[in-house]
């Protein structure tokens, strides 16, 4: 396990080879940190990679080719050591190859690469590449889970902050049940000129799960309504999460290519909603950006 640092004139980041996880995102001029510090009192992670599963399978297992494979929430990549592949002062790439351990849980040979690159003075691009190195069609999900400080300062209240979307009127969230599975319940959050006020009970029912590309840009606003961080993505759905009923001082914005099973789902891996597939030797690539 090791840390890699890259920076440009304005932003510095740290990446842990365990999970290829972004662990710090800091303004070089002010010293302001923007990422959660992984304090286990609230949540022990900072920005895990969700692969090959986003959320939960029903009963934490999936059926494929006549067999049943157990899988914990959000998959295994976040807890595995990645190899540092290449980098410059302003970029770093990490790789995870399938092995005997992964094949027991997930029957597909693969290569997963995670890249971090600056693309502008104050913008970091996070890139995912998934390659099917096997001989059968491969099914997978992938997503991000970065946790951003909100509020920025200890003396402030999170409820004085707000979240802005590039959609102006409303966002509709699919409710996640206590078993971590999707339900039929949809909750509409009205927006005031694109802004959602943060209330103490906003995350009491777990994550907001926003499907069907309702928005592709999410910003955090200070109490005086100034944007201090923006996440931009092209994902078909995303989550907004903070630990339920904990008043944790951070909020996650999670671009997803995949989602947990529905509570009524009883199908096979190939039949899952929001899944992705790759033919042999085919590669999937996606990215999102963080601007401070």
Protein described:
The chain has 292 residues and is mostly beta strands. The strands form five sheets. The protein has a nine-stranded antiparallel sheet, with no helix packed on it. Strand 15 and strand 16 (182-190) form a beta hairpin. It is built from one helix and 24 strands. Helices cover 2% and strands 45% of the residues. The chain has a single domain (3-291), classed as Beta-galactosidase, Chain A, domain 5. The mean pLDDT is 97.
Strand/helix succession: EEEEEEEEHEEEEEEEEEEEEEEEE
CATH structural class: Mainly Beta
Q: Order of strands in the sheet with the most strands?
A: 7-8-9-10-24-20-19-14-17
Give the CA-based shape.
globular
Q: What's the total helix number?
A: 1
Q: What proportion of the residues is helical, as a percent range?
A: under 10%
Secondary-structure arrangement, i.e. CATH architecture = Distorted Sandwich
- Could you give the count of β-strands? 24
Q: What count of structural domains?
A: 1
- Work out the radius of gyration: 19 Å
The main sheet comes to: 9 strands, antiparallel
């Amino acid at each position: 396990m090791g840390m890699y640092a890259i920076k440009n004139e304005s932003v510095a980041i740290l990446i842990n080879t365990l999970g290829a996880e972004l662990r710090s995102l800091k303004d070089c001029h002010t010293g302001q940190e923007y990422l959660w510090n992984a304090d286990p009192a609230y949540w022990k992670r900072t920005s895990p990679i969700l692969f090959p599963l986003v959320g939960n399978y029903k009963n934490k297992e999936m059926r494929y080719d006549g067999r049943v494979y157990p899988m914990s929430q959000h998959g295994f990549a976040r807890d595995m050591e990645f190899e540092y592949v290449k980098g410059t002062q302003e970029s770093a790439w990490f790789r995870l190859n399938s092995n005997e351990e992964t094949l027991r849980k997930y029957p597909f040979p693969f290569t997963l690469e995670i890249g971090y690159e600056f693309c502008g003075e104050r913008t970091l691009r996070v890139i995912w590449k998934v390659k099917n190195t096997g001989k059968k069609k491969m099914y997978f999900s992938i997503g991000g889970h970065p946790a951003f400080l909100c509020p920025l300062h200890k003396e402030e209240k999170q409820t004085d902050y707000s979240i802005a979307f590039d959609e102006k009127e409303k966002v509709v969230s699919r409710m996640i049940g206590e078993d971590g599975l999707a339900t039929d319940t949809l909750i509409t959050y009205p927006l005031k000129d694109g802004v959602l006020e943060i209330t103490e009970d906003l995350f009491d029912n777990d994550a907001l799960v926003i499907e069907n590309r309702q928005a592709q840009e999410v910003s955090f606003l200070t109490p005086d309504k100034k944007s201090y961080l923006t996440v931009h993505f092209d994902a078909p759905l995303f989550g907004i999460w903070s630990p339920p009923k904990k008043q944790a001082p951070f909020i996650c914005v999670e671009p997803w290519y995949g989602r947990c099973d529905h509570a009524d789902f009883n199908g096979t891996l190939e039949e899952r909603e929001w899944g992705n597939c790759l033919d042999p030797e085919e590669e999937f690539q996606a990215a999102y950006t963080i601007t401070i």
